[in-house]
Amino acid sequence: MKAADDELSRVFHALADPTRRAILSRLNAGPATVGALAAPFAMSRPAISQHLNVLERAGLIERTATAQWRTCSLRTEPLDEASAWVERHRGEWNERFDLLDEQLRRMKGEIP
């Protein structure tokens, strides 16, 4: 099965990993070098680089190079789009859960 490759799918894929979410949380405090981002994790630099590549492809971070330092910055626009998608569907999901709850209560005889 081929994974979807639209922008929203790339964002949710990137957010599905706890390491990537931790990197985004760190970047919420401000830009950081790749070394600073890698420091809290017990994994190789290539592994961190792969996580950064996923985040960059999703548009969630931006990398810049100054001399020998590579700095990463958070981009919030894709998060705003993902949040808007969830909000658009939240009402529909809540309505379905309410209907399911009502039907289950009716089956139990709790409501006529």
UniProtKB/TrEMBL annotation:
Q: Pfam families, per this entry?
A: HTH_20 (PF12840)
What is this protein identified as?
A: ArsR/SmtB family transcription factor
**Annotated source species:** Agromyces aurantiacus
Ranges of residues in domain HTH arsR-type? 1-94
PANTHER family, alphabetized: SLL0088 PROTEIN (PTHR38600:SF2), TRANSCRIPTIONAL REGULATORY PROTEIN (PTHR38600)
